[in-house]
Structures are given as structure tokens and as C-alpha cells.
Fold this protein.
Amino acid sequence: MVREISAGGVVIRLKDGEWWMAAIEPAGDGKAPEPGTTKARAKKKAVLCLPKGLVDPGEKALEAALREVREETGVTTGLVTKLADIKYVYVRSWGDGERVFKIVTFYLLRYESGCIDDVSEDMRIEVAQAKWVKLDEAPKLLAYRGEKQMAKKAIEYLATHAEVNQKEAK
């Protein structure tokens, strides 16, 4: 079984007294024609995910998370803390259809600068849209169980670490 190591982030920003989180809608809008027809399918409900991607050779997980967040959302971030690793198995839907054991390290990251969705055209093959969502709604909005858990961990961390609120207010 192939192994993949990835990293990503729960990017937070305090705005108008509420915590917001950066989420991405992966590319692929569900409008492609059905095989053998020219009729477009109805648009599927948007899938929201956390920004993440493969750790490059020689790169540390945190470096990969910061890079992937910048590439997929358009924002620059700083480390608050490591949240957790999630592990799962998936079957590739392209190429060889092989089973893959994947480990994703997630970090809680604080917004520093940039505009959400300021993503290069090259990244549009991966990301249709990046946007801010309310952090307290994120566990319901995110598509994948492990990522829902990361949003919950971020909420719990912020509830028990007042210093993050104080740093954000400066």
C-alpha cells in the first residue's frame, strides 16, 4: 500500500468579535457533461475542505502546511499550535486505483496577511474558491470527518487559551 504524508491548517482570524476560518472549495463544479451525452449535470452542493497538500521531499510538515495554505487560500499565516494527525485509507480515483494510507498533520494557524481567494491561476485546477466561514459553524460545513474534528479541536483550543484572543486583539 502506498503511503502519503500531507500537512494543512485550520486558519483562524478574529473579525468583529467572532472567529472565522479559511475553507476551500476544491475545483470540479459538477457541471461536466454526463459520459456519452452533452447534457450538463446539475451543480452539486459545494464541498468545503481545509487547505492541505503533500509534504515535498526535504520539507518539514509545518513548512508544507504554511505553503499549502498560502497557495490554496491566498493568505499568509503563523503557527499557533499543532492540532493533531489524522490517518485514513482511500482508493485513488485516477491512474492505478491503488489503495493509499494517508497521514495529514494539521496545525492551528493565525491569519497574518493577504486576501482570501487571491489564488494563482495555476492553483485553480485544485481550488475553485477560498473563503472565510464562521469557525463555530465549520464542523457542520466541512465535508470530511477528520477535518470536522480539526475544526472542533481549534474551537476547544481557543476556548481554553485566552492568550490567543489577546494576541489577536493587538
Remarks:
- The chain has a mean pLDDT of 89.
